[in-house]
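Narrative summary of target 7.
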Amino acid sequence: MTQTHGPGTTWPLTGRGPELEQFAAALDDTSCGAFLIFGPPGAGRSRLAAECRRRAADAGHPVSVARATTAAARVPLGALAHLLPPDVSARRPVQLYARTSAHLPPRAAGRGRPVLFVDDLHLLDLASTVLVRQLLDAGRVFLLGTVRTDAHDAPGVAATAVMAEQDTVRRVDLAPLDEIQTAVLLKDVLGRPVTGRAVSRLHLLSGGLPLPLRELVRAALAQATLTSDGTVWDLTSPNIALTPHLTGHVRARLRADGLSRELEVLAACGPCPLAYLREHLDHDQLAALERTGLIAVTREGRRTTVRLAQPLHTVVLRRDMPELRSRRLLLHYLAWNEEHGSRRSGDRGMRAALTLRATGHSLPGSLAEAVRHAADVEDLDRARQLLESVPRAQRDYEALHLLGQALFRAGDCTRAERALAQAAALATDEREVCDTLAARVHNFVYGLGDSTDRCHAAIEECGPRVTTALGRGELSLLKGTAAFGAGEFRHALDLCAAFERARPPRDPTQARLAVRAKLLRALSLACLGRGDEAVVLAHAAAEAPVPVRDPYAAVTAEVAAHTVLVHALTAAGRLGEALAYGTRTRNGRRPFDPYESRWLVMAMGRAALAGGRLEQARLVFAEVVRATRAQRAALFTEALCLQAAAAAQQGDLEAAVSALDEGARAEPSGAAAPDHAFGAAWTAACRGDLGRARHLLTAAAEQARLLGHTWRESALLTDLTRLGGAATAAPRLSEIAAELPEPGHLARSALAQAWRDHDPDRLLDLADRFHADGADLLAAEAASTAAATLRTRGRERQARAAARTASTFLDRCEGALTPVLRVAHSSSHLSAREAEIALLASRGTSNKQIGADLHISPRTVENHLHRVYHKLGIDGRQDLAAALRPDGAGPAAGPRNGW
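Modeled conformation, tokenized:
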């Protein structure tokens, strides 16, 4: 395991660049006398101050350190005693100032003014505060101090507040880290990226505060709930036992206002109405808790709700609370809630869940409400536990259906099918039959990856039980879903279109089905290569109102629409838009549950891979692989194949082979079939075997053509162009562009023709076009190829400009190292055969093996290599790896052992 910083050492300072720049400016400004760092406990005030001290010392400033404490504040000048001259007294303030000023180191030539650092400035006693203020006003020291924002009763808080308002004092208020900064910090500490769901969980628990984050990571590592597979780190459980240090920190924080027992109400019951809390706390107490950041107050319509501001506070309070007190608080709140009425849709579910916690059993008919409440707050483990706690003999239709959905969303698709099949047998009316069938079909197609015999058998079995026009229409849509999963996109499109023409939505059920039909149509259009049409339809689906939330939906219509729109934008070649939209969607609402997030991030991963954001793509696919490995759901193999392609395009052969081998154990079929060949082709290219790579891509493109998967066919043919097969790819890409004259297809066709014809000017124009669409790796390769061609034609000035353009695009591609980039930068243009042989030789492949792979003699291989050495200006085979790197810097650092 490689770690940049051990979790027990001092962590790197992340996300505080602006504050450090402000400190440097304040220290250099002779009119500024102090720099004060305000922030809540755990925000990293002392860590930032330590970095400021180090930088001040490096700049030649003498630095003195004082640490104020509650104990030192009981003694006048207690915190500063070690810095003062002997025989001074707080009773003689004039002499104290004069002798202390004289005792300070003089400001010698070439040295900065003395810096006095006081940690927890608000805890200074009055005499110390007065002395520091005198030294500051006289310009004898530059004061660097930290202040807790919640220390309202500390001895020096009033004087510190006054000091902070002076014109000569710079104040910064430390905000918690945002989720992106948290992800960067965790990667710096652990040495590898952390999955999005783990970052979200750690960020939520820590509140973005570095100290709790450090302790959570330390605890998770010790418990082995934070683990790495060599690619990414992930949490194996959302529950993390707290370290004693963090527990003590939280307890001290909660007891600061002497209201920890009152806060137990919020810990036990969760968010509560303000009206209920007023029975426990008066207005001044509530205001004080809000001011210190212990509670958060939100208003939604006419209801004002109060909750604990930090999830960690809830964890510690619940753990410390006696069981009987917890039950008493819950029952009291439930009685109050019953008396004052539960008018909102989620109130019944909340009460059912709290009743289960308080009594260990549910009221009649309340189990489903409790399960839905758990699902609504994204506690899928809790929902599954509630359902599995029901004795098998007592499981009715609803319990089995909800259990099947919970298992499906958790990735346990085999058990989900068993539960759903049992639910189907207990269904008593057409609505229940259709709801359960929809769940089973989605589980077959998107979970088990089986969209043929079992899926069609389930649909046919339900046919006689569905008699209404609406029910038959839903059966048609489910047949369309099965057809899509099998790669029969035109058939799926026809079934969706027929449903939409025949049944305009008149009620909530029809409205939900209409949205489902639009999304399936959009996906089918995207796969058929009609990306622009798919984008329009996906936008319409995303904006379509759904009056009632489908209680049995595996994925909400909102999430499905966002995911389909990202796919549609990717199919249209609008990769920058796809990534930006996906990122906004993921960060701009309540966090998706793990199942919903999985589909969205896979769509974003495809866009990232196509655009050359290779590190981002690898992280996304690794996250999905870890989430689906235990159950081997359909996404598992797809993510592995795409992960292999992303690793190969970075030259990481070991990772590419590992992912591809694991994915090969369950080769995809249907719509996902070309993905395995795609990953295998790029892995072969990473080995230097461009001939096999081109063969695999040609075969995969033909397979996609037979399926009607024009989006994938066009993308595969573009990759074939990138790996030296432009002559083969150009005719078919021209046919696609003629059949579907969308901008993306026209651009890919033009690229293949320009590559085939060695047209540098056209390649440069297309490079700009692809860059504008977010396809930076394709743009970098086109510009690099143009630069090489210009160089061979003696147009050196234009070649240098093209190389600079390629370098600019390549900077956005996160470690890309493809064959085009390795050979296109060379001083003389290599032929396709020379490039292929050079790549194989650079990996240490013998002439005999190269000849066998390419069906030529070893002597011919040797002749080609001599011409390569001459063109590249190198002495021999030992220099090939360095000569073929785009930056000419020699072999890639780290674990890469590919090209």
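Confidence is low (pLDDT under 50) at residues 888-899.
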